[in-house]
């Protein structure tokens, strides 16, 4: 049996680097030490630079693996029932996204074909929500529904401000009404854009969604609108848009103050548009719009018809569209 002896790794490396040729006469000079796997790189024993650009680079596979390992600490979207995102996409759609990642959507002149597709998407959604002949649908793509709700809220605030200014009234104290079951992005709109958020409690009696009676008690002339949710954060329930609209009709009849609805198309609203259900969308006369979340993108659609309807539609909703 052969005897074993201690091997000094540093001495061994010096020996190998100092021997340019092997016994077979072939070149065997070693370059910089390389890793066979991401886990056998120098980062197995030394922490990588996380906050400044390091002087030396690192193998791309090692860096990618470290980032994957860090992201493993996040939750998994397909196990998160409270998330408003899609968790599956066809491979063809994924390939299209990857092929077009380098395009800048803000540069409309450089990418006219993409902008034409964008316009067609706005048109498709507008027709799903019942755009009427003579009306014009204006929309834009956003990075997600949370961004889209900011645009929808700003549209409500600006329209309210213009109505108040035209009447010579104060515009310093806008408020908006929503249920406690509203998604957090709706509250952020109020905080970011100086609007009082009147968050109404939801109860067992109201089926844990926005209570029309509570809405009526909290309306005033400074209310820019009411957020109504299709797909409640708590239960997934569709709130009753028509019931809220009737409350606003009553308030308008008493005070003369017209208040619109902003329908938050929060969860699975595409099924409402494409399947038979108890909601009759033909009675939803569009006036103020929001976003429709479709897997990995959101489009905010605002349907304009010049002025608010002179009277409510019979048995219908004349204040809102998603």
Provide a concise account of the structure shown.
The protein has 322 residues and is α/β, with parallel strands linked by helices.
Descriptive terms for the model:
322 residues, Aspartate Aminotransferase, domain 2, four-stranded parallel beta sheet, three-stranded antiparallel beta sheet, 33% helix, elongated, EC 4.1.1.15, PyrdxlP-dep_Trfase_major
Walk me through the structure:
This protein has 322 residues and is α/β, with parallel strands linked by helices. The protein has a domain of 196 residues: Aspartate Aminotransferase, domain 2, CATH 3.40.640. 33% of the residues lie in helices and 13% in strands. Strands 3-2-4-5 form a 4-stranded parallel sheet, sandwiched between helices. Strands 1-7-6 form a 3-stranded antiparallel sheet, sandwiched between helices. Strand 6 and strand 7 form a beta hairpin. Helix 5 packs across helix 6 and helix 7 runs parallel beside helix 8. The radius of gyration is 29 Å and the shape is elongated. The protein starts with 8 loop residues before the first helix and ends in an 18-residue tail after the last strand. About 12% of the residues have low confidence.
